[in-house]
Design goal:
The complex is a heterodimer of chains A (about 180) and B (about 325). Chain A is α/β, with parallel strands linked by helices and about 180 residues long. Chain A contains five helices and seven strands. Chain A has a seven-stranded mixed β-sheet. Chain B has about 325 residues and is α+β, with helices and mostly antiparallel strands. Chain B has seven helices and 16 strands. The longest helix of chain B is centred in the N-terminal third of the chain and has 27 residues, at about 15-40. Chain B is elongated, with a radius of gyration of 31 Å. The chains are: A alpha/beta (about 180), B alpha+beta (about 325). The interface between A and B is large, with 52 and 56 residues.
């Protein structure tokens, strides 16, 4: 009986100690507290907010559920955005027939600045006006431009910070279009 | 045979008084363990749980409970030995859980993140999603944080609530914040950026710095308006601060002081002004509107693992109950 009691206590103590203490060591080697930047969003459902379009209509990202969407966050004062935009327009022309939607979302500016930008660069793809910069925050933008590729189910496939070339844009959307 | 070998002293029989004394001491120690460890669940942010003094107190109580178990294993305390031995083993499990969270668990920390940020909480087996915010919800001050568990379920943490997840206690702690909007002289909306913040496109100032101004230390933050080539410093004046600073027309009101710099960090003419919540202020060709309110932070404190506490408490309570009721345990009848 004594041996049984001793064995019971020793077993409980060993299991408890290993389980309890081991858990804290497992936590200390876990990931960092901050998961930041658009790249960290891969796999997450894409946030959607209703916004005004340049043509006055109301639009939102979830209206395009069932299609692959390339979201481009930009602003008229952003030089890399201006230099990237012709490639974005080209991508839109090339892949529109395959079901790609390109959504340009102006961050924080009124319609006048966005309209001037779109007119100067002869943009055909829809431009949304996000005066409150909600998409920028939701997509963890750490700069402009920021590009987000959303699959047909509304999940983010890739989040990319910075200016992209046409080839890089094709590389980002083509595998998703093939799914 | 030597004289010493020839004389065998009879072992002193353990008296009932001695057994009852050690039993009382063990129960006292077990009670102390429970009080010390469960206190972590009631006041998880208390820094004393992470000190050597706290650990020493738990170890001392555990030693008392452990010595009873050791003696019981050797046959002391007769029929009480088994149920109270189980109870003391339970107390030891509780003690180990309390020591682990006290010594190995991190000190309480408050996470303040930008709207839209996600903070992994490995100790809670979840992630905290800091919500997007607009001026209206900020002014209301009732914004919560969404906690999403590994299994995909989620729950909302609101102001004043406390949640226990895994080995963590999570408390929502709102702090002062200001939502800023900027327009040019024509009234066109302008992009606001925070180049030094992880949330580049956030219009929410959370005042992470502290700057001495006019004999007071004020919460401070900064943002930029790139299209106007302006950098703007913002200093939060609480009601007390405006009263102490004797600012005419602002005494007893929350306000934010703006200082507008050019791209080289040089103050522009007419670039300083104080704004109340909801007011527009014209500074250096810009129209700024600030809404003052609160945005949630998340205080995380280590607490003992609930599973260990539950199992330990169950053994402790079951063992004590069996001893009190003299219920046969493990096939052994208690009778004295």
């Amino acid at each position: 009986m004594r041996n049984a009691l001793g064995l019971l206590f020793a077993t409980i103590a060993a299991i408890a100690a290993v389980a309890i203490v081991g858990d804290y060591f497992a936590q200390s080697t876990s990931s960092q507290r901050f998961a930041g930047g658009p790249a960290a969003l891969a796999g997450a459902p894409a946030a959607s907010y209703q916004l005004k379009r340049l043509d006055g209509a109301t639009d939102s990202l979830d209206r395009y559920r069932g299609r692959v969407v390339l979201v481009n966050l930009w602003a008229s004062w952003c030089a890399p955005c201006r230099s990237e935009t012709p490639a974005l327009e080209k991508l839109y022309e090339q892949r529109r027939s395959q079901g790609l939607v390109v959504l340009g979302i102006d961050q924080g500016e009124s319609g006048a600045a966005a309209a001037t930008f779109a007119r100067q660069l002869r943009l055909e793809y829809p431009i949304l006006l996000d005066e409150d910069q909600r998409y920028g925050r939701a997509f963890s933008a750490i700069g402009l431009p920021t590009t987000i590729v959303v699959d047909k189910s509304g999940h983010i496939v890739r989040g990319i910070d910075g200016e992209l070339s046409l080839a890089e844009m094709q590389q980002a959307v083509d595998p998703v279009l093939r799914l | 045979m030597s004289a010493a070998e020839g004389i065998r002293l009879p072992r002193a029989p353990r008296s009932d008084d001695s057994d009852a004394g050690s039993r009382r001491l063990a129960l006292l120690c077990a009670g102390a363990i429970v009080a010390l460890v469960f206190a972590q669940d009631f006041a998880p942010a208390w820094p004393g749980f992470h000190t050597w003094q706290y650990a020493a107190a738990v170890v001392l109580a555990a030693a008392g409970a452990g010595s009873y178990t050791w003696n019981a294993r050797k046959g002391a305390d007769g029929a009480f030995a088994f149920p109270l031995g189980v109870a003391m083993a339970g107390a030891l499990v509780v003690a180990v859980a309390g020591l682990a969270s006290g010594l190995l668990g991190p000190d309480t920390q408050t996470l303040e993140r930008a709207p839209g940020a996600v903070a992994p909480l490995p100790e809670a087996g979840a992630a905290a999603f800091f919500p997007n915010v607009d001026s209206t919800s900020l002014a209301r001050g009732d914004i919560g944080i969404t906690l999403r568990r590994r299994d995909g379920s989620s729950l909302e943490l609101l102001a004043g609530q406390r949640r226990f997840l895994g080995a963590a206690a999570l408390v929502l702690e709102p702090h002062v914040a200001a939502y800023v909007e900027a327009r040019d002289a024509r009234g066109d909306h302008l992009t606001i950026t925070q180049p030094t913040n992880a949330a580049f496109l956030s219009s929410l100032l959370q005042f992470p710095q502290a700057v001495p101004i006019a004999g007071q230390t004020l919460p401070a933050d900064q943002f930029a308006i790139p299209s106007a080539h302006r950098q703007i410093k913002a200093f939060y004046f609480s009601r007390d601060a405006t009263s102490k600073a004797h600012v005419r027309g602002f005494a007893g009101e929350d306000a934010v002081l703006f200082a507008v710099d050019d791209e080289n960090g040089k103050l522009v003419p007419n670039g300083i002004g104080l704004a109340r919540s909801g007011d527009d202020i014209q500074l250096a060709g810009l129209r700024l509107r600030v809404t003052i309110g609160t945005y949630p932070g998340l205080a995380i404190s280590a607490v003992p693992l609930p599973l260990a506490l539950g199992l330990g408490s169950l053994c402790l309570a079951g063992g004590v109950l069996a001893a009190v009721l003299r219920v046969p345990l493990a096939g052994r009848r208690l009778s004295r």
